[in-house]
Write the structure tokens for this entry.
Amino acid sequence: MHLSDELPVDHELARVYRYGAALCGLILLVFGSLGFADRLSPFNTGGQHLAGMSTNGVLSLISVVVGLALIGGAIVGGNFASTLNMAVGALFLLSGFAHIFILDRPANVLDFGMTNVMFSFVMGLLILTFGMYGRVSSKLSHDNPYWRRRHAREAARESLARRRTQAPAPLPAATGRTALGSTPATARTLPQE
């Protein structure tokens, strides 16, 4: 199975991916926009705080770009939103781990503090969870499209068994009369002897 496999258009998992991407994208967009509203300098590491986190102009720009990307993924929806959520969530987690090691060092150009690191971990896990929901699990339901793709033979057997149990009863043999006892309009009457 490839990550690009498409969900059915009406599958309820697509709604989870879409709403998750939109919610997280909106949070990041608001944070970045507030940074632009405060006219923060691009690489200032002087400890300016916004919503309890230290920030600068570059971090605000990155937040806006990632927020818009997630909102764009929510608009597209489906597996694209899921894959985007997983990728962005993983990048947030990696960013949190990387910034733990560069706190209070000159390499910390985004002016991360410990609250930023915690936010990066929480937001990364949230986005990643939205992306992997119903897609990565050992116990997916059998109507899940990812389970059907991974277990194609068993899904085909279940589908065949379901069709057999739902098949209509066989029609009675043609005797010139229908099941209700009336003669169909297209049937020819045979002469009586």
Q: What stands out?
A: The radius of gyration is 29 Å. The longest strand covers residues 49-50. Helices lie at 12-37, 57-76, 78-102, 114-132, 145-150, 152-166. Strands lie at 49-50, 53-54.
